[in-house]
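#struct-help
A.M.: can someone run this one for me? Single chain, 205 residues.
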Amino acid sequence: MIQSDIRIIGLTGGIATGKSTVANIIKEYGYKVIDADKIARDVVKKDKPAYKKIVQNFGQEILSEDKSLNRKKLGGIIFRDELLRKKLNNIVHPYVFKAIKGLIIEYSQSEKYIFVDVPLLIEEIDKFKEYGIYFDEIWLVYTDKATQLDRLIKRDSINKEEGLKRIKAQMPIDLKREYATKIIDNRGSFEALKKQMEKVFYEII
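D.P.: on it. C-alpha cells below:
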C-alpha cells in the first residue's frame, strides 16, 4: 500500500529536452527517481512476457542477431505509424505500470518525496490513475522546439526530417506546459540548469 503522507512528483518533458539530465540532478540531491524508460527496457528483455507478445505482433525482423529486441528497428517502425505505436504501448504499458506502482509502494515506506520519470506522463495520465497512481505535482523539463530539434539531431545522429518526425510523434511541448505545476527551463547551459534546480530544491526543503 502507498503511504498517504508522501508526495509523488511526475517528471516529464519532450524528446531531447534534457529530462534525463534533470533526473540525474534530482538523484544527486538524494531523492528516489523511478525511471519508466528503464523499466520499459527491462520488461521487454528476451523471453519475458512482453517480449514474446511484441515478437508475435511485429515479427522476427525487429530482432537483433542475438534475438534481443532491436530498439532502433522497432523505433523506426512505430515513429512512422501511430496505430503501430499504440499497439506496442498496449503490450508494454501494463507491465510498466505494475512495476512503477510496486516501486512506489516500496519507496513510500521510507521516502517523503518520490519522483517518477516518464516521457509520456501527460499523454498517459489517465492510465496511471487506472493503476492507482496519482501525482501531486508534474514537473516539465522545457525547451523551445528549435533547441529540441538541434539536440535530437546531435544526440541520435539523425537528419532534420527524421528529427522533426520524432518530435511531431509526441504532444507539442508548449501544450504540455498547460498541465505542468512546475516548469524546468532547460534552454540554457548546464550550469544555468544546476542553479535553477538548486533553487527548486531550496523551495522544497
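A.M.: thanks! The longest helix spans residues 82-107.
D.P.: also worth noting: The first strand starts at residue 7 and ends at 13.
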